[in-house]
């Protein structure tokens, strides 16, 4: 890339950033009257969390929007004694009665309107049923969230709740006819924050709750397992691991995690099923930058991650799981540089008659011989000529 292209790229990036900043700072402030003196007295506030706890007394709070909203406009506290429970109205009442500067965003206005639309639809659900859906009664909307939510010891369900809402909206929208409620009711303004977006999506779910029930599924797992081979095969694995220990290859950091897992597999073969053990085979935790960490005893099968870092616990980033393939390069006397490739090629589903014609999922082991470098047709001509004469 030449200097001019670099400069153009920089200027384009600068323009985009300036436009974003302009959108963030855009506003219109107007003097409404000069007859009333602008007051600046403050009154006591409480945290948003405390206010929600007051509204939902004796109910566990699993998540609050302020935990997810990193925008500069994120409001962490609210008036301790508002004029009314409705925050939109309370802000207007307080500004009016205390002669203070009122600030409103398009999100404030549209969310209030959306709530009004939602109430109207719910109060007239059967009258408008055919305008929104084709079915009678309610359809159960189910989404899986095991990858983004986790249940903690205090029975708190935490994780990426905005994405849970988004998934429910996407699935619900598949059954809504004619009217694009998502585009209509969602907050999609230059002022929209992650909190106002999620709130508007929840209003959308509220608008059609007379036609749908919602379920978030967290109990992903393996309902049934078949362990092939004989019991002797499985106990042989245990014996091999013992021999590995005796080689003194400094593998204890790995084998200490692996041995208990193999013992549980042997127990399972014998019919001693530990449901808790199998439910802990995999758990996926998402974190802010978009990455995912895998916990559970599946990690016990890996001494190192993809980058060569030793694993000392059953935690591994999803992207760092080894690819399951090994490569062994070799040369030939005809000028070809090749390599053996072997391991887990992938996984497949199949229906097996000897297993009650049930669909089963299993790893696929395979191997291949491939070039050890990018393919080239420029094989040494002398080698080819020698081959020809030998033939």
From TrEMBL:
<dbReference type="Pfam" id="PF14388">
    <property type="entry name" value="DUF4419"/>
</dbReference>
<dbReference type="InterPro" id="IPR025533">
    <property type="entry name" value="DUF4419"/>
</dbReference>
<feature type="signal peptide">
    <location>
        <begin position="1"/>
        <end position="26"/>
    </location>
</feature>
<protein>
    <recommendedName>
        <fullName>DUF4419 domain-containing protein</fullName>
    </recommendedName>
</protein>
<keyword id="KW-0732">Signal</keyword>
